[in-house]
Known about the structure:
Blueprint: E1 2-7, H1 8-19, E2 24-29, E3 33-39, E4 46-52, E5 56-61, E6 64-69, H2 70-77, E7 85-91, E8 96-101, E9 104-109, H3 134-137, H4 140-150
Antiparallel strand pairs: 1-5, 1-7, 2-3, 2-6, 3-4, 7-8, 8-9
Amino acid sequence: xxxxxxxxxxxxxxxxxxSTLVDEAKFNVGKDSITVKAVxxxxxxxxxxSLDRGAFEAYKADEGELGIDMDKxxxxxxxxxxxxxxxLSHDEDKNRLVVAVGNTTRRMALxxxxxxxxxxxPSLNLPAKLSSGRTSCDRxxxxxxxxATTSP
Length: 152
């Protein structure tokens, strides 16, 4: 069981990120978040994304998986304006995702997730750290140097 309401901007961003790597993705739905891990076909790039329940206006879910065709989802999301709220629900009987945008409702067949594996996230040791206070970037000399390096 899954039902949620989320701003169109948030969902569009998630779909855009995932769709740059894969055509279909397995979204793992949990009580507190939706997660997706996907690797591009060449195994060069990976996305490990978590959308916590706080990103939703309303969220109610049991553990489960949703196999989503990213192109179909992008088509549906084109119906939504930036600030609009999108309602999502899983029709378990017909294995479809029901997406409501304004007065329009679309039902999208879900992809079988049996052949989709969860890629292992490598343990990376990245010792470099960068921290900067806002005031250090606000100095005129920093702004001049930054604009000089970014101008065409």
